[in-house]
Design a protein that fits this description.
The chain is α/β, with parallel strands linked by helices. It has two domains: 120 residues, Nucleotidyltransferase, domain 5; 145 residues, Nucleotidyltransferase, domain 5, CATH 3.30.420. The chain contains eight helices and ten strands. The strands form two sheets. Strands 3-2-1-4-5 form a five-stranded mixed sheet. A hairpin with a 5-residue loop joins strand 7 and strand 8. Helix 2 crosses helix 8 and helix 6 crosses helix 7. The two termini are 23 Å apart. Bound molecules: adenosine-5'-diphosphate. The site of adenosine-5'-diphosphate has 21 residues, from helix 3.
Length: 271
């Protein structure tokens, strides 16, 4: 059996996915990017291989993607995270139907990607200048509220349902605003709900830049937050699809790309 590895070195997390030659998901692993991307990427790959009872000799082709993709020099190929995200989303959303718009929120950026009927990227918009509307902002809010990011979804649904408005457009000022709201006896639940709506409003603006086309797919770590999903759906007024493993879509796409590249290279050799 041939195995294909997709490595997504993100600003916050390293995601590694392995697929077989039929592009089926074999396994995946997520670890923090930390400060030593290269070392942690290798470490994470070895851990995943061990978990799957595989060795490096079982790997046929490696595609690296993400913010730190060029660091992984052993990769056979590296591709942009926009391309990898689109390939992964189309494959992960087969049961949902056609994907036309992808919303990706990562650790330090957020993106809206528009696809054509064939699943090709036709346009994208990105916010990588400002932490508001990214995973880092959610991490900072959770820290200020002394809860974990994985608890944000539950807190959102325990709120009074009327989101507090967080008006600061800058993450640093928004953090001060949150501390002020706590000082004014607002509940953690209502603040969390307000934070989610403030991010959702920014995301809707971003999506509008590429055009809102139905068949909306949301991925990246923050898509694990059901409260944020709820706020984005309400702000968009449209249903959005969340894959089973939203944080690994881009590495899944990179692994799938590896299968195609390998088959293409093999066909050139045969010709
Ligand atoms: P990147 O690719 O830029 O490294 P990710 O797509 O891996 O970013 O997303 C990282 C973000 O995902 C974190 O900053 C955090 O806010 C969010 N996140 C991670 N795990 C969870 C979880 N269980 N629940 C909610 N949010 C999460």
């Amino acid at each position: 059996m041939n195995y294909f590895v997709g490595i997504d070195i993100g600003s916050t997390a390293i995601k590694i996915t392995i697929v077989d030659e039929d592009k089926n998901l074999v396994g995946s692993r997520i670890s923090g990017s930390g400060s030593m991307f290269y070392q942690y990427a290798h470490q994470t790959l070895d851990e995943l291989l061990r978990e799957l009872n595989l060795t490096r000799d079982d790997i046929t082709y490696v595609v690296a993607t993400g913010y730190g993709r060029k660091i992984f020099k052993e990769a056979d190929e590296n591709i942009s995270e926009i391309t990898a995200n689109a390939i992964g989303a189309v494959a992960a959303a087969k049961e949902f139907g056609e994907i036309k718009t992808i919303i990706n929120i990562g650790g330090q950026d957020s993106k809206a990607i528009s696809l054509d009927d064939q699943g090709n990227v036709v346009n994208f918009a990105m916010n990588d200048r400002c932490a508001a509307g990214t995973g880092k902002f959610l991490d900072a809010c959770a820290m200020n509220l002394e809860i974990g990011v994985h608890e944000l979804g539950e807190k959102h649904f325990d709120s009074t349902g009327v989101p507090l408005s967080i008006n600061s457009t800058c993450a640093v000022f928004a953090e001060s605003e949150i501390i002020g709201l706590l000082g004014n006896s607002h509940s953690v639940e209502d603040i969390v709900c307000g934070v989610h709506y403030s991010i959702a409003k920014r995301i809707v603006k971003l999506v509008k830049r590429v055009g809102i086309k139905e068949g909306i797919y949301f991925d990246g770590g923050p898509a694990l937050n059901s409260g944020l999903v709820n706020a984005i759906e309400n702000e968009l007024g449209k249903e959005i699809f969340i894959p089973e493993f939203p944080q690994i879509t881009t590495s899944f796409g990179a692994a799938i790309m590896g299968v195609d590249s390998y088959n293409y290279e093999a066909s050139l050799k045969e010709a």
